[in-house]
Design a protein that fits this description.
The chain is of the alpha/beta class. Helices cover 55% and strands 12% of the residues. Helix 3 packs antiparallel against helix 4. The chain is globular and about 45 Å long.
């Protein structure tokens, strides 16, 4: 199983990815679950993450290809080896992030690039997730959370309108591929959000969760 978690910055993905990992480890066995992330979830990925989040890139295409490059290394070194062993991989961000942050929300790139990216992903052989979960939250609430946590990166300086466009881009992806997505209201407290995520997983995977999901 290949599950990805998505959402704008401050949606609580990383916390929920860890909780999902714990829950699925309980159902499937710890050795059968891997929690990983993009950008930077591979050996050497820290340098790419710093470059991507540092705000020093001037070209939107440079940014696009950097995230794609990071993904290629992450998939070949981490994700595919785990999927080939039959593990369940939970990835904190994946191709929908690039579609939402670089492509669909960005007037300088244009939405026809979404087709280009999808075609490119197929040529590269990037595995398609079995399920993508959107932790949906409005830009103002997410921003307040980030400020409280003191965890702002260069993307966060792009402002409210950008994040509302990213959120709308996620919604467009859900409308296009409704069978592949779960949408959870992420404005609630951590436990309530996780409850929604678990229910979504149970609906999506049923008995594949070891036949004893609760
Ligand atoms: P994170 O802090 O949730 O790991 O995300 C890092 C930042 O990178 C976040 O602001 C979103 C951004 N990002 C993209 O813009 N495109 C991508 O393809 C990925 C994976 C992340």
């Amino acid at each position: 199983m290949f599950i990805v978690l998505e959402g704008i910055d401050g949606s609580g993905k990383t916390t929920q990815a860890a909780r999902l990992g714990e829950w699925l480890s309980g159902l499937l066995g710890r050795e059968r679950v891997l929690v990983t992330k993009e950008p930077g979830g591979w050996l050497g990925g820290d340098a790419v993450r710093r470059l991507a989040l540092g705000g020093g890139l001037s070209s939107v295409w440079g940014e696009f290809f950097l995230f794609m490059m990071d993904r290629c290394e992450h998939v070949s070194g981490v994700v595919m080896p785990a999927l080939e062993k039959g593990m369940c991989v939970i990835c904190d961000r994946y191709t929908p992030s690039t579609l939402a942050y670089q492509v669909l929300s960005n007037p300088l790139i244009g939405s026809e690039a979404a087709e280009y990216m999808t075609g490119m992903s197929e040529v590269i052989g990037l595995p398609r997730p079995d399920c993508a979960c959107l932790l949906d939250i409005d830009a103002d609430t997410a921003r307040r959370r980030l400020e409280t946590r003191g965890k702002l990166n260069s993307f966060d300086a792009r402002g409210r309108d950008y994040f509302e466009r990213v959120r709308a881009a996620y919604d467009a992806l859900i409308k296009r591929f409704p069978d592949e997505w779960i949408k959870v209201d992420a404005s609630e407290d951590e436990n309530t959000v996780f409850g929604g995520l678990k229910r979504g997983m149970e609906r999506m995977f049923g008995t594949r969760l070891g036949g004893h999901a609760t």
